[in-house]
Specification:
The protein has 193 residues and is an alpha/beta fold. The chain is 30% helix and 24% strand. Strands 1, 2, 3, 4, 5, 6 and 7 form a 7-stranded mixed β-sheet that branches. The structure holds inosinic acid.
Length: 193
C-alpha cells in the first residue's frame, strides 16, 4: 500500500493515463500534466527508453517542482534488429505521432519475414523525495500480418502477446493491463511508492 496519496504522471497521452489509472485503482490519485497546468511539449530526444523516461520526469521536477513519474515505451522487433524501439512513436518518417502510418510501415518492413518475435518494453522513471528510480516491464509476443481489433492504441492491433489468441486491440483494458509491459512496470512502481 502506498505511503503517498497522489503523484504526477508526466504524459500527454490520454491512453496511457487511463491505463495507468485503471491499474492503480483507488490506491493512489494520478495527476495528469493538465492537472498541474503543464501544456509543454516535453522533449524526448534521448537514444534509450531509460534516457527519455528520466528526461521527462526531470523536466517536470525541474520546471514544476512535483515528485512524478514518466514512462517511455518501445516495440522491439527481432527481425528488424530491435527497431522501432526507442523510435516507436516516430517510426514513419515525417508523420509526427501517426499510429496508423507507423503500423503500416512496420507491416511493410515485416513482409516475408518468418521470425516475427517482438516485445513491448516500458521503462518508468520515478522522482520522489530527491531520489531517481527506474523500473521496467516487458511482454513478449509476435507481430501478425495484418491488423486485428479496434481497442487499445499504437501498435496494439498487430501485437499478439505470447500465449494469447487475441491481439492487445482485441482485449478488454483489464485483460491487457493484466499482462502488458505497462501493467508490469506499473505494479513494480507501486511497490516503490
Ligand atoms: P511513447 O512511450 O509515448 O514514446 O510511445 C512510443 C510508441 O509506442 C507510440 O507510438 C505509442 O503509440 C506506442 N505505444 C506505447 N505504448 C503502447 C501500447 O501499450 N500498445 C501499443 N503501442 C504502444
Amino acid at each position: 500500500m502506498s505511503s503517498i496519496k497522489e503523484i504526477v504522471f508526466a504524459t500527454n497521452n490520454a491512453h496511457k493515463l487511463s491505463e495507468i489509472r485503471e491499474i492503480v485503482g483507488d490506491r493512489l490519485t494520478i495527476l495528469s500534466l493538465a492537472d498541474i497546468g503543464c501544456h509543454d511539449d516535453i522533449p524526448e530526444n534521448e537514444d534509450t527508453l531509460e534516457g527519455n523516461a528520466l528526461a521527462k520526469a526531470r523536466f517536470i521536477k525541474e520546471h514544476y517542482g512535483y515528485d512524478c513519474f514518466a514512462d517511455d515505451t518501445g516495440l522491439e522487433v527481432d527481425a528488424l534488429g530491435g527497431e522501432p524501439g526507442v523510435r516507436s512513436a516516430r517510426y514513419a518518417p515525417g508523420t509526427g505521432h501517426d499510429s496508423m502510418a507507423n503500423m503500416r510501415l512496420l507491416l511493410k518492413n515485416m513482409e516475408g519475414k518468418t521470425d516475427r518475435k517482438a516485445r513491448f518494453r516500458t521503462v518508468i522513471a520515478l522522482i520522489k523525495d530527491g531520489c531517481e528510480t527506474v523500473v521496467d516491464g516487458i511482454v513478449e509476443g509476435t507481430i501478425i500480418e495484418s491488423q486485428r481489433g479496434c481497442d487499445g492504441f499504437g501498435y496494439d492491433p498487430v501485437f499478439l502477446p505470447e500465449g494469447s489468441p487475441l491481439t492487445f486491440a482485441e482485449m478488454s483494458a483489464e485483460a491487457k493491463n493484466a499482462i502488458s509491459h505497462r501493467g508490469r512496470a506499473t505494479r513494480r512502481l507501486l511497490q516503490l511508492l
